[in-house]
Amino acid sequence: MTAYDLARGLHILAVIAWMAGLLFLPRLYAYDAEQGGKSEPLKSEMQALLRAWQTRLLRIIVNPAMILAWGFGLWLIHIDVSARGWAFLAEPWMIAKLAGVFLLSGWHGFLAAERRRIAAGTSTKSGRFWRMTNEIPFLLAIVMVLSVTTEWALRG
Ligand code: HEM
Fold this sequence. Notes:
The chain is mainly alpha-helical. The chain contains six helices and no strands. Helix 1 runs antiparallel to helix 2 (about 40-85). The longest helix is centred in the middle third of the chain and has 43 residues, at about 40-85. The protein is elongated. The structure holds protoporphyrin IX containing FE. The site of protoporphyrin IX containing FE (HEM) has 18 residues, from helix 1, helix 2, helix 3 and helix 5.
């Protein structure tokens, strides 16, 4: 077993946890936004429960998983640079991968900011908005996974 094999296994595990959290968090936001039609005290009780779950999911799973995915990803870059120099970072497949990584990290940042707005009661997003944007992480994952597994421009 090489350090590279270990790093990519740990990278994939961290990515699975990060993706799972990013796919579930907007569901909790959608349920929260859709409590409007309920009467009190059910509405407040449901929102308090959903907001506790949102905070816990973000703090216990999503944030640590992002840090680990980044950490193991940067370790992989370090190993790749030692093995084949810096040039691979400018290959189209790696640019596509990194573009996906930055977009996913930006989406994560937006979800974290929305959690704070939901908790403060200032979010303007609807349940429909959260259901429509729910697939963004998975669409980005398709680009990221296929770019690293094919390394298309390298193999022609
Ligand atoms: C968070 C920042 C990330 C960085 C810095 C990063 C970086 C890297 C690097 C350098 C490699 C090795 C590429 C190679 O040498 O072939 C790699 C592999 C991989 N990454 Fe990432 N990545 C990140 C996030 C992600 C995400 C979000 C996904 C999926 C949604 C992902 C999926 C993969 C997969 C499937 C591999 C292939 C592992 C293998 O070689 O079997 N990565 N990543």
